[in-house]
Amino acid sequence: MSYYVVKKMGPKIPAEGIEMRVISGEKMTMVFFHVEPGAEIPEHSHPHEQMGTVLKGSIELTIDKDKRIVNQGDAYHVRSNVVHSGRCLGSASEVLEVFSPPREDYLQEA
User: Fold this and answer.
1) 3-state secondary structure of 99
2) Domain span at residue 70?
3) What pLDDT tens digit does each residue of the chain (110 aa) get?
4) Which segments of the chain does DSSP mark as H helices, in order?
5) Beta-bridge mates of residue 105
6) In Å, how far from its chain's centre is CA 58?
7) Which of 19, 31, 66, 86 has the most neighbouring CB atoms within 10 Å?
8) Residue 19, domain member (yes or no)
9) What is the CATH number of the domain that holds 42?
10) Rounded distance, CA 103 to CA 38, Å?
11) To 5 degrees, how large is the angle CA 102–CA 48–CA 21?
12) H/E segment holding residue 7
């Protein structure tokens, strides 16, 4: 498929307060996240390179022990196998992330 209506895609719920909608290609995966205030992304790492941007709201993001507030319009990069975590601040946030290679674990049915 080449075109998507993201709002019509069924969400996956990886953790309480977090919804994600996943689009995957041959060499990358794009994920739209909706994160409720106070929701946390636990500390983790993965072999995928990751880039993201906050489309709405703000996220407290920790990448390799470097903690920053990432606001609407800001972007970030997480290298492969680097430990990172996050927490939604204030109001609900919308985040777009891209992973390479594709996140096959995100494509599995819950």
Assistant:
1) strand
2) 36-93
3) 689 999 999 999 999 999 999 999 999 999 999 999 999 999 999 999 999 999 999 999 999 999 999 999 999 999 999 999 999 999 999 999 999 999 998 876 54
4) 104-107
5) none
6) 13
7) 86
8) no
9) 2.60.120.10
10) 25
11) 50
12) none
